[in-house]
Write a structure and sequence with these properties.
Chain A is globular. Chain A folds into 2 domains: 216 residues, P-loop containing nucleotide triphosphate hydrolases (Rossmann fold); 60 residues. Chain A is α/β, with parallel strands linked by helices and 300 residues long. Chain B is mainly α and 422 residues long. Chain B folds into 2 domains: 97 residues, D-Maltodextrin-Binding Protein, domain 2, CATH 3.40.190.10; 249 residues, no CATH class. In chain B, helix 1 crosses helix 8. The longest helix of chain B has 38 residues. The radius of gyration of chain B is 32 Å and the shape is elongated. The chains are: A alpha/beta (300), B mainly alpha (422). The interface between A and B is medium-sized, with 31 and 27 residues.
Chain lengths: 300, 422
């Protein structure tokens, strides 16, 4: 279990992370979201023990995270963290040995992952000769090589095409099934929504959303109703609780303040002709993110 | 325990990637050939200049003077051979019935017949090869001067009273030592530059490629710093040993293969040893200062590399290090020549300068044995202290990518490294 307990990181007067508090259990995937400069990378560095928190602590199975147990953790940083002059094999051997692994085991796992990511032929190629996508795979492999109990992934899908993204997602799911903990950050909120149970959204180091995704959505209250019918948009806009109407090509989307206004909209649509769709949806994580971050920046 | 294993791994990995590089192997093969060649230059020249020149001349000296008891032949042969490492002029073992038989007898080359008074003798000179004439005549003249001195003058040398002062070094010896040490300091200077460059490039490569974050997440920054320093100091020692082995190999080749010419090569070293009486101490100090001093420069290079964010950054930021090295090199070479002993002596105490200056001040007698040992201890202590203080700055800087100006950046990292709330 990983526990981030009331962590605060301060540089003089500047507060990089305000009182962050969350925990991850084995088999959980945790999303850390936020705009650029929100404090995600700093939080990851604190988790990895690279930065010492000014207040609070990080506990890994009840112990502090340090060089005595860091070999059980896989850490992938946002930008490509590779030694381009080395070959793929040399680099993985280098990282593996830094994780206290014996050479034969590293080579065995290297062959497995090379095959998994379909880059066997690049084993003895220099990293600088690989495409960006393949470099990303090598970096991911270096994170997985020690079969970590905790995966810390900073923007793992950045720059990946959909096929490779799915490949990465599959690996993460596999690790989850094995009861490992995964904490990751991403700008691709659809991924976060599809496989994270819990999230924290940071803005300028402060937590603006936190908790179980389902609960976050419920708490957000605002709903979207998708309508396909011959409706008068002006009438819709005039209804109680409606704060926005968007005319998309496939449907009209009506944003309402809470579920208590669904009935009013439904009653109006019922009176219209040619009704093909009336669908009430919870707000997406992306909408909540934009709304909350915009709010934090004073742009509701 | 795991950290110790990782520390060893980092050192071994660093050394392997440096020592097993093609460029290192090729450079050392070329340098080896050059060093062996240079050591053998006198032998090679002698070898190709042919054997005729070193063919001995057989000399017969007849003493028919009033002082016929004087060992004239022995004395003159000693004079004739003084300029040679080997016995160029040898006594003729045979006998001549008449002096005129000289021209027909094949194994005698020079005949000198002294008659009358040995102070002002009549000398009949028989020489088959005119090339030896001037050498023979000038040496007879020198001998006669000495003989006249022995006959007429009585010299008594009065020693200066011993008042406990160090008589110091005569100017000629000092100039000679300065010349030799200047030559020896140059490889030190070059090796330190190369080693610091290697370390800086190594660190900046890891930092600019962001690989450093993955590495530092597995080993503490302090261990990483120490492993880089140990790797590079080991490399320096290995490279120095390789140079030394090449030198010894050169001498051995000279001794074993070119047996006819080895005497000169060996005697060159013997002469150096004779003219620099404190050479063992000097070499020991050079080695000690090179190791301690390089450690200090490596710490500085590591600090600069950790502050830089790109290769270009590092090239710009390393200027102070190069200036320090160049400054101490020029002080070491030129100030002793200008006779500014006190300035050089003070400079020898300044840690970054002491590396190149202290061995010279010891060799030229500006600092004595105890004083040089003191300078070495001070430099060592400063190095340890320096390492102790740069480690926290390195820890902060190595994972930061500030793009501000150099001194602003240093100030920021120092503040962050020593802030109570890190």
């Amino acid at each position: 279990m990983l526990e981030v307990k009331d962590v605060q990181l301060r540089y003089g007067d500047f507060i990089a992370v305000h009182h962050l508090d969350f925990s991850i259990r084995p088999g959980e995937i945790f999303g850390l979201l936020g705009t650029n400069g929100a404090g995600k990378t700093t939080t990851f560095r604190v988790i990895m023990g690279l930065l010492e928190p000014t207040e609070g602590e990080v506990r890994y199975y009840g112990d502090s995270v340090g060089y005595h147990n860091v070999d059980e953790i896989g850490y992938m940083i946002e930008e490509r963290s590779l030694l381009p002059k080395m070959t793929v094999k040399e680099f993985i051997l280098y990282i593996g040995q830094l994780k206290s692994m014996p050479k034969p085991l590293i080579l065995e796992r290297l062959d497995y992952w090379l095959e998994y990511f379909d880059i066997v032929s690049y084993k003895d190629k220099k990293i600088k000769e690989l495409s960006k996508g393949n470099q990303q795979k090598v970096q991911f492999m270096s994170t997985l090589i020690n079969d970590p109990k905790l995966l810390v992934l900073d923007e793992p899908f950045a720059g990946l095409d959909p096929i490779n993204t799915d490949l990465f997602v599959k690996v993460i799911r596999e690790f989850q099934k094995q009861g490992k903990m995964i904490v990751f950050s991403s700008h691709q909120l659809d991924h976060v929504e599809s496989f994270c149970e819990k999230v924290v959204v940071l803005e300028k180091g402060e937590v603006i959303i936190q908790g179980d995704i389902k609960k976050v959505k419920e708490d957000f209250k605002k709903l979207t109703i998708s309508i396909n019918a011959d409706v008068d948009v002006e009438i819709l806009q005039g209804l109680d609780g409606v704060y926005r109407v968007i005319e998309d090509t496939d449907a009209i989307r009506v944003k309402i303040k809470s579920d208590e206004y669904v009935r009013d909209v439904f009653d109006y649509v019922k009176s219209c002709d040619n009704i093909r769709k009336f669908d009430v949806e919870q707000a997406s994580l992306s909408e909540i993110f934009v709304a909350k971050v915009g709010g934090a920046r004073g742009q509701v | 325990m795991a950290l110790v294993a990782k520390f060893k791994f980092l050192i071994m990995h660093g050394l392997k990637s440096r020592l097993l590089k093609k460029s290192f192997i090729i450079t050392n093969i070329v340098l080896g050939l050059v060093i062996v060649g240079l050591v053998n230059v006198p032998s090679i020249i002698d070898f190709f200049s042919g054997e005729e020149e070193i063919e001995s001349q057989h000399v017969m000296v007849v003493n028919d003077t009033h002082d016929d008891a004087f060992p004239l032949e022995e004395t003159l042969l000693a004079h004739f051979n003084q300029a040679y490492e080997h016995e160029q002029y040898k006594a003729y073992e045979g006998d001549l019935a008449t002096f005129d038989d000289f021209w027909e007898t094949g194994d005698i080359d020079i005949l000198l017949v002294f008659t009358g008074d040995l102070i002002a003798p009549d000398v009949d000179v028989y020489i088959k090869d005119d090339g030896h004439r001037n050498h023979i005549l000038s040496n007879i003249q020198v001998f006669l001067n000495e003989y006249q001195d022995i006959q007429y003058a009585n010299y008594t040398f009065i020693e200066a009273p011993d008042v406990g002062d160090d008589p110091g070094m005569d100017d000629e010896t000092r100039m000679f030592i300065q010349g030799i040490v200047s030559i020896l300091v140059l490889p030190m200077f070059i090796l330190i530059i190369i080693t610091t460059q290697f370390l800086g490039v190594d660190i900046i490569e890891e930092k600019s490629s962001k690989a450093i974050e993955t590495i530092i997440s597995s080993v503490p920054a302090k261990v990483h710093l120490l492993s880089k320093i140990v790797t590079n100091i080991t490399f320096l020692i290995v490279q120095s040993v390789i140079f030394l082995v090449f030198g010894i190999l050169g001498i051995l080749i000279s001794h074993a293969i070119l047996t006819t010419t080895d005497i000169e090569a060996m005697s060159l070293l013997a002469e150096l040893a004779e003219r620099i009486p404190n050479w063992p101490g000097m070499l020991a100090f050079m080695l000690a200062f090179m190791i301690v001093g390089t450690l200090l420069y490596l710490c500085l290079a590591a600090l600069i590399a950790s502050i830089a964010t790109t290769q270009e950054d590092y090239q710009t930021f390393q200027a102070p290090l190069i200036f320090l090295l160049l400054g101490s090199y020029y002080i070491a070479i030129f100030l002793p020549m200008l006779g500014l002993d006190s300035v050089v002596q003070v400079a020898a105490y300044i840690p970054f300068f002491s590396t190149l200056i202290a061995p010279i001040t010891y060799a030229t007698g500006v600092t004595g044995l105890m004083e040089t040992v003191l300078i070495l201890i001070l430099t060592g202590a400063f190095t340890v202290l320096f390492m102790y203080y740069i480690a926290p700055i390195y820890r902060v800087a190595i994972l930061s990518y500030e793009e501000t100006k150099f001194f602003k950046r240093i100030a920021f990292y120092v503040k962050k490294a020593f802030a109570k709330n890190k």
